[in-house]
Design goal:
Alkaline Phosphatase, subunit A, 45% helix, alpha/beta
Length: 626
């Protein structure tokens, strides 16, 4: 014990460096499932550079304390980033700090993925603290000498380390895949690379204009063929104005994957209400989530704006200071009012700022509902729909057209539906499993939708209303639900990425025959699709969107980042995920889930999506501030 304490007092520099490198190895093992020596050099250079700076600027008296703080801070960052990766599947950058205040709201979900081994990041801190306290008790206050490194040697080492880190950052800056980039650069250099990229993008945006970006977007979209096979006829788009003047209700379904549709377990339908609704609605079975760091709030943002989330910050946090072009603002021009309903506190994900930025007339949050203590968010979907139906009935009786958005929560992770509210019994092989709980939650969500629809019919609103339903994002984490096991238990094909990111998109239009569309789509396509049905010409209103009207394309490509690396896309045929670039990427057939060896013909889609998302980022950043 005394030997360790004396070593720390005399050589804190060396000891802290050794401890940090052990933690970097631990981080790589947890996140990248392996350690490569050449990549540890990047970690060593970055950690040592900061350590050298602290050595140079700190007096001998304070070195132990300063190095201890450095060790502690980096331990917390690596610990938090490991949990973050486990939950989101991506390595966080410094911008994720903006979302720290949201953690208490999802504490139950985060707690469920916490592994005891993650606390190894703090083992040395505990040991050193115990040794320090024990030594002080035994020997009293001691002023043991500290061996200071020679300043010239430390300065040279700092310069060398910065140069090495700079080389890694330079070589890895062009890698679009964030996880591959983080693995190549190391945790600390990855943060620097993210800051440099943000600075470069900011300069490019400042040097441009929103008019120029809108024109570039129009030209780019015109260059891509959204038709294949039998082309959509020229002239008036299909279904244009089919729901003109109708109310619109959008149900954003929490963690609702498409696997629940038309699925039966133990002879029981998981989503009987939606199954019946699909028969008389437009249904898009190959529809995918595209959210970023803001998760559910990003889905709200994207469905209302047809703008891609940037992936580096929740859109509600980063862009609610702007007058966002949106569906509520478009429909306000036609006399609509727009309301949104969410049982949580409106400050969660800065919705108190996002809703006005989107142009919603009014929002209803936690105080508007009776807390029936359904789950951690409070009120159930049934309670949310009860209040919503009251408010919408008031508008309907005044002949006031409305656009209403409902954000459900009853199927939120960890999917615990109160026993007295469960409406389906899982068979023995699924009872008590997360998959069984998840299907039970989807079934309850479906039931609540059915009750809401019956209420709309009883109030005479149904025949005057377009009903839109879609999932905000995936529900099941693959580490908790092995895809092969899910396939076996449910008797379906289930893929870690394709099935997990596949969400339903259903549009019911009164008096219009239903149809299932097989081409691919994403959340960025929702707004232009609904606008077409309502007879709103985005082109005539000079409104820029980054998605497509799914009723008038036969070929499509949608990008995804954050939950997949930047450059990933879904088209009618494949899911593509880049490696360091296009050539070393991977592709999976959307229908067979089999690997596609030769994907060279999709290079156009890759380049197109990268450019489209870049333009989307520029556009949203150039929007005028409120």
């Amino acid at each position: 014990m005394e030997l360790t304490t004396n070593f720390y007092k005399r050589s804190p520099f060396l000891l802290v460096f050794i401890l940090l490198m052990l933690k970097m190895v631990l981080f790589r093992q947890f996140v990248f499932q392996g350690v490569q020596i050449d990549r540890l050099v990047a970690d060593a250079a970055a950690a040592l550079a900061l350590l050298c700076v602290l050595e140079l600027i700190t007096s001998a008296k304070w070195k132990g304390i300063v190095f201890g703080i450095y060790n502690t801070l980096l331990s917390f960052l690596l610990f938090a980033s490991t949990i973050y990766f486990s939950y989101y599947g991506t390595v966080p950058t410094y911008t994720a700090l903006h979302g720290l205040d949201q953690v208490p709201q999802i504490g139950e979900s985060v707690g469920s993925i916490l592994q005891p081994t993650y606390y190894l990041f703090f083992l040395d801190l505990i040991v050193l603290a115990v040794i320090h306290i024990a030594t002080r008790i035994r020997r009293g206050r001691s002023s043991g000498s500290k061996r200071a490194a020679k300043p010239m040697f430390v300065a040279i080492a700092a310069v060398v380390c910065v140069a090495v880190s700079g080389g890694y950052i330079w070589n890895g800056s062009s890698i679009p895949n964030e996880v591959v980039q983080a693995e190549s650069l190391g945790f600390l250099d990855y943060q620097v690379a993210a800051a440099i990229k943000a600075s470069e993008q900011g300069k490019a945006i400042r040097d441009g204009s929103i008019e120029q970006t809108a024109q570039f977007t129009e030209d780019l979209q015109a260059s891509y063929s959204y038709q294949e096979g039998e082309a959509v006829p020229a002239g008036t788009p299909n279904y244009f104005g089919a729901a003109k003047g109708k109310n619109v209700i959008v149900l954003q379904l929490e963690a609702f994957q498409n696997l629940g549709i038309n699925l039966s377990v133990g002879g029981q339908e998981i989503t009987p209400v939606l199954n019946d609704l699909i028969g008389e609605s437009f249904y898009f079975p190959h529809f995918f989530q595209q959210i970023g760091q803001g998760n559910t709030s990003d889905a709200e943002f994207m469905s209302n704006t047809s703008i891609y989330p940037t992936g580096v910050i929740a859109m509600s946090t980063g862009y609610s200071d702007r007058e966002l072009p949106s569906m509520p603002r478009l429909l306000a021009q036609d006399g609509y009012v727009s309301n949104t309903f969410h049982v949580n506190d409106v400050t969660f994900w800065d919705r108190n700022r996002m809703y006005p930025a989107l142009g919603f007339t009014k929002y209803y949050d936690k105080p508007s509902f009776v807390n029936d203590k359904f789950n951690g968010f409070g009120a159930s979907d049934i309670e949310m729909y009860r209040v919503g139906l009251e408010k919408l009935t008031e508008l309907h009786e005044k002949n006031q057209p409305f656009y209403a958005q409902f954000v459900t929560t009853s199927s939120h992770h960890p999917f615990k539906v109160p026993a007295d509210q469960q409406r389906i019994k899982m068979p023995d092989n699924l009872a008590g499993t997360q998959l069984g709980n998840y299907l039970t939650a989807l079934n309850y969500t479906d039931y609540a939708i059915g009750q809401f629809i019956e209420g709309l019919k009883a109030k005479g609103i149904w025949d005057d209303t377009v009903l839109v339903l879609y999932g905000d994002h995936f529900g099941m984490q693959s580490k908790d639900n092995d895809p092969a096991w899910v396939s076996e238990q449910l008797g379906i094909k289930y893929n870690d990425r394709i099935s997990r990111f596949n969400i339903p998109f259903i549009v019911h239009v009164p008096g219009v025959e239903g149809k299932t569309f097989e081409h691919v789509g994403g959340q960025v396509d929702m707004m232009p699709t609904i606008a077409n049905l309502l007879g709103v010409s985005l082109k005539e209103r000079n409104h820029t969107v980054f998605g497509q009207d799914l009723l008038n394309v036969t070929r499509n490509v949608v990008g995804m980042r954050y939950y997949l690396p930047t450059g990933s896309f879904f088209n009618n045929d494949i899911l593509f995920v880049p490696g360091k670039g296009f050539e070393d990427g991977t592709a999976i057939d959307l229908k067979t889930f089999e690997p596609v060896a030769d994907f060279s013909k999709y290079r156009e889609d890759y380049d197109y999506i990268l450019e489209l998302m870049k333009l989307s980022d520029s556009y949203v950043s150039q929007l005028p501030k409120l």
